[in-house]
Write a structure and sequence with these properties.
The structure holds 2 protein chains of 2 kinds. By secondary structure, chain A is mainly beta. Chain A is built from no helices and 11 strands. The chains are: A mainly beta, B mainly beta. Chains A and B meet through β5 and β10 of A and β4 and β5 of B.
């Protein structure tokens, strides 16, 4: 079955550590996205990529980094520069062009900073 | 840029009642309005969407209405069931542009 796989589902981090969240899709989607979800704040866009080897900052990119070396993969690194990293992180993908706004989401990764 | 407001933040109904969630958007050029349902511990899933060339769309117990003049759209769920309990997000976008999401509504359906 086609879909988006995020790992790990739960992750604990000590302050000052970088962590990387994995996102893999087999939907042959061109575009991939990372969102952060906090209670009462909806879904906020961190980074997105419309094509391999290219990505753009979203609304809250500070303290995060991404790469897009393969069409299927879009890992997110939460760096020590992110002031409040505890959150639920969602990866999504879509086709380009007319289908650019029809998103398929992964099951999410919950990051907790100890 | 686009701004989407969603109300209420929490909605409690009895099983069998109807539920209505409302969203307003700011950019009159937006033309695509999806609704996503997020169950506990899972990612959001698209449940229904509407484009600006229609005023209403139905799919069994759910429907979405769009008022372009007032720049608001609503999700209607009839004959609610406990499995409808979830967080619902509205969103808006223009063609080929990224979605802008509302802040979510937590719906609780009590047996």
């Amino acid at each position: 079955d086609g879909g988006i796989t995020q790992s790990p589902k739960y992750l604990f981090r000590k302050e000052g550590q970088n962590v990387t969240l994995s996102c893999e899709q087999n939907l042959n989607h061109d575009a991939m996205y990372w969102y952060r979800q906090d209670p009462g704040q909806g879904l906020r866009l961190i980074y997105y990529s419309q094509i391999v080897n290219d990505f753009q900052k979203g609304d809250i990119a500070e303290g995060y980094s991404v790469s897009r070396e393969k069409k299927e993969s879009f890992p997110l690194t939460v760096t020590s520069a992110q002031k409040n990293p505890t959150a639920f992180y969602l990866c999504a993908s879509s086709f380009q062009g007319a289908g650019a706004n029809v998103l398929t989401f992964g099951a999410g990764s919950r990051l907790t900073v100890l | 840029g686009e701004n989407v407001e969603q109300h209420p933040s929490t909605l409690s109904v009895q099983e069998g009642d109807s539920a209505v969630i409302k969203c307003t958007y700011s950019d009159s050029a937006s033309n695509y309005f999806p609704w996503y349902k997020q169950e506990l511990g899972k990612g959001p899933q698209l449940i229904i969407d509407i484009r600006s060339n229609v005023g209403e769309k139905k799919d069994q117990r759910i429907a979405v209405t769009l008022n372009k003049t007032a720049k608001h759209f609503s999700l209607h769920i009839t004959e609610t069931q406990p499995e409808d309990s979830a967080v619902y997000f509205c969103a808006a976008s223009k063609s080929f542009q990224k979605l802008v999401f509302g802040t979510g509504t937590r719906l609780l359906v009590s047996p």
